[in-house]
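Morning F.,

Quick status update on the modeling queue. The single chain you submitted on Monday has been processed. Sequence for confirmation:
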Amino acid sequence: MTERRDVLVLGAGLTGLAAASLLGERATVLERESRPGGLVRTERLGDYWFDHVVHLLYFQDAETERCIRDLMGDLLAPCPPRAWVETTRGTARFPIQLHLNGLDSETCVACLRDMAELTFRPPAAKPTNFEEMLELTFGKALCDVFMFPYNRKMWKRPLNELAPSGFTWNIARPDFEKVLRGAVSPTTRAPAYNSAGWYPRPEEGAPVRGMELMPIALAEKAADLRLQHTVTSVDLDDQSVTVRCGGGPEAPTIQVGYNEAMLSSLPLPTLVRICEQAPPELKERCERLTWNRVVSVALAIRGPRPEAPGHWRYYSDESMVFTRLIFMHEFDPMCAPPEGWSLLVEITQPAEEPMPDADTLIARVLADVARVGFLPPGSEVVASKMWEVNPAYVVFSLQNQQIIEDAINFLEAYRVTSLGRYGSWEYSGMSSCLYDGFQWAAEFLRFNPPALDVVVPREKDLVRDGETRENA
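Structure tokens below.
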């Protein structure tokens, strides 16, 4: 027998949890993992804490901020990000285009010359690929010193085969006066993109630290959250899903249906693949969508904490295995014991490549971290761990956009909405995912008034993530 709810939510990431927190008894959430949160989870090595991938919370609309603050209260602490960019021509604060004073004088002058040309004699042609977009935005000099090598490390694909948009929130030509100020004065501190960040800082001895505290708080508002429930197929005509309960292929299965709507934050290719009514041609096209994974290496280090390393540092040197070093104790000093610190190392790889051997990769990471000076004498790595984040970054090829639109339109014809970072197959952050979930639930409740007293966000408060953002 198929049990039914008004709404089915597939996936207990931020989008699904945000929606479920408003929908109450009307929604059932199905999540394959043993704990909610999706990528927003925290790992522990002894007394050292690491986010699964680094997260800072930024509020881009008033209603999302109200909802999250009501849930988390005083746990959230201000955490304006301090980030650095390491290049072969110098070290600059992030964003590099507004802090050129960190580069050597010849490189700084070349970058200024290029940006002046772009500002005062903008080219008539529009970029046709990602490589052209970068050069037409920042100029050749800055691209050669940072934008090209870093993005080659990040995407592991020819930049001229990638789409000219969609990759990041903050690729926009900066104001030339701000560029000039950041070049001539070493004391200039242009605000970083999304400078008003927040991070949970619970009391000493808390059983959980890190950003996972936010999905834990959201999950408490979900009336029917079912963990270790893996959706194996979707029958769009019957408006139901088949679910494997528990781990292993021999686990029992059940049928769960929806009367009104289904919200999915599963990766878009996965959702289309398991839909029984999806045309084979659409399934085949969705299988061609590409993405990168992140391999994270957590290092629990005993020894003096580095002085003012920033929250993270980007590395453009292509001879180094990592794209970014993240200093977790800068987000929350209690992410490590007083005599140590937590270092999270990020490495991006094409998802289609085989996973590296853990021991080999960790040895390479240790060598490169020492090479950049963050394992000085007296430091001791007391524990290490590698894990995979897959998918992590959606790759925007020149052919992908039409596939994504066709897949989403197909699903919507059956009252299935695919949202979230991977449901929409986009590059987005936590604020956007939360907004999407809250807005979707609010719109559903407007057209399907709840029997219970549920606070529905006002339309005017739900400003789409990005509309009020000033690009760096």
